[in-house]
Specification:
The complex is a heterotrimer of chains A (375), B (423) and C (284). Chain A has 375 residues and is α/β, with parallel strands linked by helices. Helices cover 38% and strands 17% of the residues of chain A. Chain A contains 14 helices and ten strands. In chain A, α2 links the parallel β1 and β2. The two termini of chain A are 40 Å apart. Chain B is flat. Classes of the chains: A alpha/beta (375), B mainly alpha (423), C mainly alpha (284).
């Protein structure tokens, strides 16, 4: 599995000679002076602002407008496309959404070697990004994972701490409210793994109706104690407020709760689910806006910039050459490597988001899941 | 107009000053007045029709519109006309050849997954089938039937083709069927499996919660309206401010207030723990469930109950109650037999208003309802922005709209639209 | 009910006070949630609850930092600016069109009056989610989705029923012989409108405008669907805030909004009194 190699490479950090980045950008001819960038809000968007758009704006004077609509990106892009009036220039989406947008012709196909900067040592972008180029339209930024965080001060647990993802399903040993995402992906996998399905068999089981029913039955055992989240910032907030004792979310959000806000929360890395997140360019942009986007992307996806993002949030850069450049947190000054999902210590049990499987079955499973949820 | 002369002319017709018959003059004046009032109304009417009625009509249309199949695979739709699913056999090579031509084109235009998604609403699994067949389709050689079946056996089944054939017409009732948990199978219209039924249940819950909210508004609103109507003007005006302030306060402000109050670590729980009524370890769960929705929405809609009740009660003369009492009725009888019946129009107006507003609510259930306190509106929003099943969203919206219109008709009969009062 | 007669029995007295107590509790329910957010918005901590310091009335427990955040955070400022630039324009459109139509409707011989009325009132009756969905699809088709004018037109449409209702209500008490008197003295219809009719229905027009304003200023569902990032309004920012990054800044904004509501409410009350005085309905 090539992805695994990339992750390991990112984690172990084989060294490149640190390149001298020129601060000079090539001129941009016939380029728009504004960019509307769609992202997820919160700490993640903040890291993008600091690592990409602020430096770029300082160099070019371009005005950035951020729209926190990544959650509804597919729907809104489809509506805009139908109207022939696309107001977004660059959209941050997760891998599966990128695949869907590309399939439907809503995202523009890119040529990685032409549109993205090569690594400092001359490795072409397509090779440097490698397995993370999951779709012809996708411009990867980061590897992130969905995992659990729990409060470290729960009296009812009598000193025990969760060590396995299955502890989420153990209401006796670990009573209290949990937070899970309001969609089937990942929850179904965790439920089946904790119901005794082996990792190898997982997706075969999920392909059957009985498999999904089995997962829902497992989820039923904790349903009354679950708060369902739809935004990545929910779980950290609920954890900090003490509204829940354990909950799933993106690892970077948990980092910010633990290390930046110093809340009594800890990570449970067991069976974290890896995913890619990155940009897509909407199809059908007028020329001046497209020129601007391409100009920005060449800057924002280069080796140094991707490594810079990791100064602000604990997500692994998606290109191999950035990994060795990951250093310390910008403000806290702590080493970022152990907080990366790709750190070997955190990779005991992992899953990688099975985009192909979910692309084929998402609609059917989702219908069942939502019906189950409503009852 | 006032300067008519009543000179009975030779033909017996009453004439205006300039000699035209008065009747004609009056008619003309009436016509002019009609025209003038119509011209005054016209700009707004045109504006509302363009900016509001047409969007609604457009949405209603989406609930039956189904051009996508015919547009994406036109040759196949024609070829399938000859095929009868009842034959029990998959269509022949000519259908597959037509389908291949269509499909390769659709793949080039990147439309095949969208069609797959559309067919998936009728038959789970179609989305995956279309997606899977995408790239291989470009390399297929005749005979196409075998080529397709080689990609996936499902292409050889009668069911797959029956679904496509059945989805071919440009208009469909499929979304409406889905909206009531039914779907059309080869055997006719059937309910979907028990564990996938959701919409009738949600409509039911929306109605149920709305009734509960309406009842609690009535329960809380009646005494307040009664008090306000019976107090002297000066003090009732003062107290009225307590009703109007929430009415004028942003919906989101009130919703956030309830979030602050009802959380487990919130003000109410803190208070209960502090007075020792509740143990710190088992704080009450009052939010992200039905309870949260009911409390917050009762608070938000209460002014809509109090105001119509108050305006009716103000018109009830105290003399009736006094008369009843002087005839020997006790307080309760006087209230129940004399006062209460006269306040029923207010109850009707307030209750229908609150109910209409409540069944369409979206924001508050979304923020405090969790999963057990959400309404059909939340589901509509979900289908618009997340699942992208816009046809189903439109069908659900149409049903909800019909429900509201019906209630509004009743409201109009009881109260009259002209009598809606604000503030 | 207003006062107890001297001969009231013990049961009557008990009931009298019980009833008042019940009403007091209901008033408390109505007003407490709005009051409680005010002190919390001065919380020195990032919590939604009263800290021990706050309860001890220790000045250290209080701070203006959430207000400071609101006034310095570009997101909130942008949202405030968007709200302020959308709501007044929507209000003007709604008020002008609505007032004209209300005058037209108040005349005696309007054909299809009730049908027209039903259409004009419909934006108030149709559930917001349906309006939002319909406008989302339709405005997308004609290229208005995600534009400033798209949001303004949608908000104006939502606001007009309120203008119609309030203006119609003032017109009910309007003595039409005044128009005839004015005309008989040689004033043309335009002069009559501005010199005679307008001053009398002005309170209705203004309160309708206030309703239209608050409709647009508070509206979140439609703008959520129709708007794009550059039309993000205050309620939208609050909605995302409540769903995503919950911070006490929301309570600071909420407190400011309550202040605006109080202002609007006072204006309305004064208008109502003025209108009643003008029309001789109340002694003053």
């Amino acid at each position: 599995m090539k992805l695994r190699l990339l992750l390991l490479a990112a984690a172990s950090g084989f060294t490149f000679a640190a390149p001298v980045q020129s601060d000079e950008l090539p001129a941009c001819d016939n380029c728009a002076s504004e960019m509307t960038v769609v992202s997820w809000g919160g700490a993640y968007q903040n890291s993008q602002v600091k690592a990409y758009s602020d430096p770029y704006a300082a160099m070019t004077g371009v005005k950035f407008i951020y729209d926190e609509s990544s959650n509804e990106a597919v729907a809104k892009l489809r509506a805009m496309n139908e109207a022939g009036n696309v107001t977004w220039d660059l959209v941050d989406v997760e891998g599966p959404d990128a695949v869907r947008l590309c399939d439907e012709g809503l995202a523009m196909e890119i040529n990685a070697d032409e549109d993205l900067a090569a690594a400092p040592d001359g490795t072409p972008a397509s090779k440097d990004f490698g397995e993370s180029l999951i779709s012809g339209c996708f411009i990867p930024q980061i590897v992130f994972s969905t995992t659990f965080g729990y409060r470290t001060d729960v009296a009812a647990w009598n000193g025990a701490t969760p060590t396995s993802v299955c502890d989420v399903f153990d209401l006796e040993k670990f009573p209290g409210k949990r937070a899970l995402e309001k969609r089937p992906k990942k929850n179904i996998e965790w439920a089946l793994l904790c119901d005794g399905v082996s990792k190898a068999e997982l997706y075969n089981v999920m392909e059957t109706d009985e498999g999904i029913d089995r997962a829902l039955a497992k989820l039923d055992t904790i349903k009354d104690d679950v708060i369902w989240w739809s935004a990545g910032a929910d779980t950290p907030q609920l954890l900090a407020d003490g509204e829940i004792v354990i909950g799933s979310t993106y690892n970077g959000r948990l980092f910010s709760v633990i290390e930046e806000q110093k809340q009594p929360v800890a990570m449970l890395w067991d069976y974290q689910v890896f995913d890619f997140d990155g940009w897509i360019i909407p199809a059908g942009l007028p020329e001046d806006r497209l020129n601007r986007v391409k100009h920005f992307l060449k800057f924002a996806t280069d080796t140094q910039r991707l490594a810079d993002q990791a100064k602000y949030i604990s997500y692994g850069p998606a290109r191999a050459s950035s990994a060795p450049l990951v250093g310390k947190h910008e403000e806290l000054g702590i080493d970022m490597a152990p907080h990366m999902p790709t750190d070997p210590a955190n990779m005991g049990n992992i899953l990688v988001n099975n985009i192909e499987w979910w692309a084929n079955y998402a609609d059917d499973v989702d219908a069942k899941f939502q019906a189950w949820l409503a009852k | 107009m006032s300067s008519t002369i009543s000179d009975p002319a030779s033909d017996g017709v009453v004439r205006a000053a300039d000699g035209t018959p008065l009747k004609q003059r009056l008619n003309r004046a009436l016509r002019r007045e009609k025209l003038r009032s119509f011209l005054l109304i016209l700009p707004l009417l045109a504006f509302i029709v363009l900016s509001f009625i047409m969007p609604i009509a457009d949405m209603l249309f989406r609930s039956v519109e189904n051009q996508i199949v015919e547009e994406t695979i036109p040759l196949t739709v024609v070829a399938l006309k000859e095929w009868d699913p009842a034959s029990g056999e998959a269509p022949g090579e000519e259908v597959f050849a037509a389908f291949h031509a269509d499909f390769v084109q659709a793949f080039k235009d990147k439309k095949h997954t969208r069609l797959g998604l559309r067919l998936n609403y009728d038959e789970p699994g179609m989305s995956g089938l279309f997606r899977k067949t995408g790239r291989p389709s470009t390399k297929m050689q005749p005979p196409y039937k075998e080529a397709f079946i080689k990609v996936d056996e499902d292409w050889g089944t009668v069911e797959t083709w029956a679904v496509i054939k059945q989805a071919s017409p440009a208009y469909t009732d499929g979304y409406f069927l889905n909206a009531v948990d039914a779907h059309r199978t080869a055997k006719g219209i059937e309910m979907v499996p028990e564990n996938e039924r959701i919409y009738l249940f949600l409509f039911g819950r929306t109605m149920f919660l709305s009734i509960v909210i309406t009842m609690s508004c009535l329960l809380l609103g009646y005494p307040i309206a009664f008090l306000l109507a019976s107090l002297p003007l000066r003090s009732s005006n003062m107290l009225m401010i307590l009703v109007l302030l929430p009415f004028w306060t942003s919906l989101l402000v009130r919703t956030s207030a309830w979030k602050v109050l009802l959380q487990q670590q919130g003000v109410v729980n803190d208070f209960l723990v502090w007075i020792g009524l509740v143990n710190d370890a088992d704080r009450l769960i009052m939010i992200n469930n039905q309870f949260g929705t009911i409390v917050a929405m009762t608070h938000i809609l209460l002014p809509f109950m109090i105001l119509p009740l108050f305006s009716v009660m103000k018109t009830i003369s105290p003399n009736y109650v006094r008369a009843a009492k002087s005839l020997g009725a006790n307080d309760w009888t006087a209230f129940w037999k004399v006062y209460f019946p006269q306040s029923i129009p207010g109850i009707g107006a307030g209750a229908i208003l609150v109910f209409i507003l409540s069944i369409g609510y979206y924001i508050t259930p979304e923020l405090v309802g969790g999963t057990s306190g959400i309404f059909i509106s939340n589901r509509i929003a979900y289908h618009i922005s997340t699942s992208l099943n816009w046809g189903l969203a439109a069908a659900l919206g149409t049903i909800l709209l019909a429900l509201v219109m019906l209630l509004f008709y009743v409201y109009d009969k009881i109260v009259g639209i002209d009598n809606v009062k604000l503030g | 009910m207003s006062a107890l007669p001297p001969y009231a029995s013990k049961a009557q007295i008990t009931w009298h006070y019980t009833f008042r107590a019940i009403c007091g509790l209901i008033f408390f329910f109505l007003i407490f949630p709005i009051i409680v957010i005010m002190p919390l918005s001065f919380n020195a901590e990032n919590f939604f609850t009263f800290t021990p310091k706050m309860l001890a009335l220790d000045p250290e427990g209080y701070s203006l930092k959430h207000y400071q955040d609101f006034f310095t955070n570009p997101d909130w400022q942008q949202a405030l600016w968007n709200s302020v630039s959308i709501a007044p324009v929507a209000t003007i459109v709604a008020t002008c069109l609505g007032t004209l139509a209300a005058i037209g409707l108040s005349q005696s011989h309007v054909p299809f009056k009730s049908a027209i009325m039903a259409i004009l009132i419909s934006p108030m009756i149709v559930p917001l989610i349906i309006s939002a969905a319909g406008m989302y699809f339709f405005y997308s088709r004609i290229g208005l989705q995600g534009t400033y004018w798209g949001v303004v037109l949608a908000h104006a449409a939502l606001g007009t029923p309120f203008v119609i209702i309030t203006v119609t209500a003032t017109l009910v008490g309007f003595d039409r012989s005044l128009i005839r008197a004015s005309a008989s003295m040689g004033a043309n219809p335009v002069t009559t409108f501005f010199k005679v009719q307008m001053p009398l229905i002005l309170p209705g027009v203004i309160s309708g405008a206030l309703f239209a304003f608050i409709t647009s200023f508070d509206e979140v569902v439609v703008v959520l669907f129709l708007g794009s990032a550059s039309q993000k309004t205050l309620p939208w920012q609050m909605f995302t805030g409540l769903r995503e990054q919950i911070s006490p800044t929301i309570l600071a904004v909420a407190t400011l909004l309550v202040g605006i509501s109080i202002l609007l409410l006072t204006t309305l009350e004064l208008l109502r009194r003025r209108s009643e005085r003008l029309r001789g309905l109340s002694p003053g």
